[in-house]
Amino acid sequence: MPSAVRFVEILADTGVTHGLIGPREVPRLWERHVLNCAVIEDAFPQDAKLVDVGSGAGLPGVALAIARPDLDVHLVEPMQRRTDWLTTTVTDLGLDNVTVHRGRAEELVGVVSAPWVTARAVARTAKLARWCVPLLDGRGTVVAMKGRSAQEELDADRRDLTKLGLVDAIVTEHGGSVLAEPALTLDLTFEPKLRQGSSGEKSRTKR
Questions:
Q1: Residue-wise burial string across 32-58, b where 16 or more C-beta atoms lie within 10 A, e elsewhere
Q2: Domain 2-206 has CATH 3.90.320.10
Q3: Are strands 136-146 and 183-190 parallel, antiparallel or unpaired?
Q4: 80-139 tens-digit pLDDT
Q5: What CA dihedral angle connects 180, 186, 187 and 193, to 10 degrees?
Q6: Is the CB of residue 129 less than 8 Å from the CB of residue 162?
Q7: Residue ranges with strand state E in 12-146
Q8: Domain boundaries in the chain?
Q9: Does the pLDDT at position 201 exceed 70?
Q10: Rounded to whole angstroms, how far apart are CA atoms 184 and 63?
């Protein structure tokens, strides 16, 4: 709890001045942001290694590292000022289970990988998966924090996800006992060897 409270204080201070958190979000930092992210800790097994893509203000990565000291958390963020802020924040909080990486997800393929990848408010599901799947260490799961649109996005993007090697997908509720509205994650398990390489590679080349 002391670390979580300190994290909220940092977000309300330099998180705002660095443009990571909007001033209007300060009164609801605890429930809407930090606790909302921390409750998805039950998605990960003991001692799991995970990558947080587009970490920004450390949500959900830093919140998860506080809630679960056993996790090995890697924050991926392309902007220098944000990675500087994340590094300072991680040091302030004394989190020795967090590593900060500067770069886009696609630039860090082969540099950082894990069985678990997570992200919050980064992109629509299909686009997010194209960034995250290459970071999976073999068969692995992308735990994407989504709102009420989770099932709708899954239904709409399933064809594209299947091309990436999707083998299982479920929408999971977290924190129903402590949050007024549970946090929702779209848990997408991929088997990279099942990826439809030819069509996937062509589509990536066009982009």
A1: ebbbbbbbbbebbeeebbbbbbbbbbb
A2: no
A3: antiparallel
A4: 999 999 999 999 999 999 999 999 999 999 999 999 999 997 788 999 999 999 999 989
A5: -170
A6: no
A7: 49-53, 72-77, 98-102, 114-120, 136-146
A8: 2-206
A9: no
A10: 16
